[in-house]
Amino acid sequence: SQTNSAITHHITAHNHALNNFTDHAVDKNKEENNNRMSQIQPSTSPRT
Fold it and tell me: Which intervals of the chain are annotated as region Disordered (predicted)?
């Protein structure tokens, strides 16, 4: 049972790292989308 708990702990840590990576990727996509939208909108464009 000691081996099982070690494996479970490893899986939990792996899932946690995956979740962090996914959250980071989503945040990055949101930032890029926001930047793209602000470039499209003339009201926030520096040219106006």
Answer: 1-48
pTM score, whole prediction: 0.40
Residues 45 and 39 sit within 8 Å (Cβ to Cβ): yes
Q: Where are the alpha helices (DSSP H) in the chain?
A: 2-40
SS3 39: helix
Q: Where are the domains of the chain?
A: 2-41
The backbone torsions φ and ψ at residue 32, rounded to the nearest 5 degrees and listed phi first, read -65, -40
